[in-house]
Amino acid sequence: MSPAPSYAERAATLWRYTALLAVAVLMLYPLAWLVGATFKSNAEIFTSVGIWPSRLDFGAYAKGWKTSTEFTFATYFLNSFAIVVPRIIVTVISCVLVAYAFARFEFWGKKTLFAVMVGTMMLPLIILRLPQYLMFREFGWLDTYAPLIVPSAFATDTFFVFMLVQFLRGIPRDMEEAAQIDGCNALQMLWHIIVPLLKPAIIAVVVFQFIWTMNDFMGPLIYLSTVENYPVSLALKMSIGATEEVEWANVIAISVVSLIPSVAVFFMAQRYFIEGAASSGIKG
Amino acid sequence: MYENRRLGLLFVLPFLLGVLLFKLFPFVMSFALSFTQYDLMEPPVFVGLDNYREMLADDPLFRKSLGVTLLFTFLAVPLRVGFALFIAHVLNFKLRGINFFRSAFYLPSILGGSIAVAVLWRFIFARNGLVNIALMKLGFEPVLWLADEHYSIWTIVLLFTWQFGSSMVIFLAALQNVPATLYEAAECDGASKWQQFFRITVPLITPVIFFNVIMQMVHAFQEFNGPYMITEGGPLHSTYVLALYIYDQSFRFFNLGYGAALSWVLFALVAGLSALSFWSSRYWVFYAGEKDNK
């Protein structure tokens, strides 16, 4: 069909690659440089733009990991996971159920409720922080992980519900109708048909919730007060706030380490969740 | 079975409870709190419109903070959305290695919200940080990014722009839906690539541009981690965004009533600007043919 590319077309392609590469380098260079900086001495950090360090010293990682508190980052990572794992589980269960209801059932007030859901996606969270704090204080939940986990069990992360609904709407109902004729009830249908079909979208939910919860800072900052309970994000903040004379290499080293779980999850699942993000739009 | 109303209602019940308890109730409560004086020790005292009056009449910090928030939003949102559209457009030419670039550009979006990146950012823009080393190598004067009130806002604007990946993937999906026949026709008529971009692509994806602008605006108005970690609101409150001010009033000074009033101003701002965008969208958003064009 298409003729051999002309000179002009090849020039255009070259220009496009150059532009993309330039932007990619500009965006990723700081990250690469920082990884390099963790091996450098303080003097080298503040003079060199190169990525490769002149020595390979893991000392900063060891020191950063130990922290200036009585706990190591092992504690903080475990704390983070103690929030992330339950939160992901309750998010997936509640959001799939609710999305199933919105996409496949008729019920009284459905349109209104759906509009409310889309509306809350645009509601600035910051307006809810203060009353939620007072509420959780009444419940006696302060300094526990409950305020960070329990709301997710009620499908309050409406972005995920919306994403799953959009995904479900794109799936034809043939299989479900066949299953219905075979005598499947609604829950069997959900488990045997909907969930397998939704798998890519569910993976997207898991990945997003993992990364956002790992990144979450304001929530833990407001609700947690005991250092022993701190997740990684708060511990990092503490490591920079402790002294004016910051041992930069240590702080950077531990910051880099703290990003590893998110980066790993990102690369493992990227093909699922970039699609998910694109198909429903939003966030980030 | 789909007509089984009770079953549907049962499945949606968690959300109904959640939205009432964790969204609507706090929403109303924060409105009520904004008319009170409350410090957690004594019970709330109703003060009418005093909080709002004080804000408008004699709180220079509020005015400063409002200005900073608007400046930040109007710099950061167009930069992020514009960049996202530009890169998505370039990626949309069937280039090899698109997946690599897409991941590379998306990565900052997922990491950018973390405290780790804010720490790293603070370091890059430090007096002897990477940016200044690079500037000096290129023969420019170093800039006191974190200490000079004229430049500090750019550190958080750049951090926000850096995370354009999520908007980019949305644009990319939209661009792939623009029918190729339109470009072929334009090609026949002798339109240049840039003309095609501005005359065909942009008009056809205005709904997506609109969507991205609104969502990013909502995000920008709430930006907290960057100003909190990188510049700590300074210097001279030059990066003291409203989210930071609300946090300080609510959780550091425990002026809960005033904090609630501030957050309602922020909400009114977001809602107002969204409404304005919706209203203006009649004039610049173009919906192709059928209503449902997924």
Put the structure in a nutshell.
With 284 residues, chain A is an all-alpha fold. In chain A, 72% of the residues lie in helices and 0% in strands.
Characterise the protein shown here:
The complex is a heterodimer of chains A (284) and B (294). Chain A is an all-alpha fold and 284 residues long. Chain A has two domains: 7-57, no CATH class; 68-280, MetI-like (MetI-like fold, Orthogonal Bundle). Helices cover 72% and strands 0% of the residues of chain A. Chain A has 13 helices and no strands. In chain A, helix 4 crosses helix 8 (158-169) and helix 12 runs antiparallel to helix 13. With 294 residues, chain B is mainly α. Chain B has one domain: MetI-like (MetI-like fold, Orthogonal Bundle), CATH 1.10.3720. Helices cover 71% and strands 1% of the residues of chain B. Chain B has 14 helices and two strands; from the N terminus they run H-E-E-H-H-H-H-H-H-H-H-H-H-H-H-H. A two-stranded antiparallel ribbon of chain B has the order 1-2. In chain B, a hairpin with a 7-residue loop joins strand 1 (36-37) and strand 2. The radius of gyration of chain B is 23 Å and the shape is globular. Residues 290-294 of chain B have low confidence and may be disordered. Classes of the chains: A mainly alpha (284), B mainly alpha (294). At the A-B interface, helix 1, helix 4, helix 5, helix 6 and helix 10 of A face helix 1, helix 3, helix 4, helix 5 and helix 6 of B.
Major beta sheet of chain B, specifics? 2 strands, antiparallel
CATH topology of the largest domain in chain A: MetI-like fold
Major sheet of chain A, described briefly?
Answer: none
Mean pLDDT value of chain B: 86
> Number of DSSP strands of chain B?
2
CATH architecture of chain B: Orthogonal Bundle
The CATH architecture designation of the largest domain in chain A is Orthogonal Bundle
- Tell me the CATH superfamily of the largest domain in chain A: MetI-like
Number of domains of chain A: 2
| Order of helix and strand elements from N to C terminus of chain B | HEEHHHHHHHHHHHHH
Rg over alpha carbons of chain B: 23 Å
Work out the number of β strands of chain A.
0
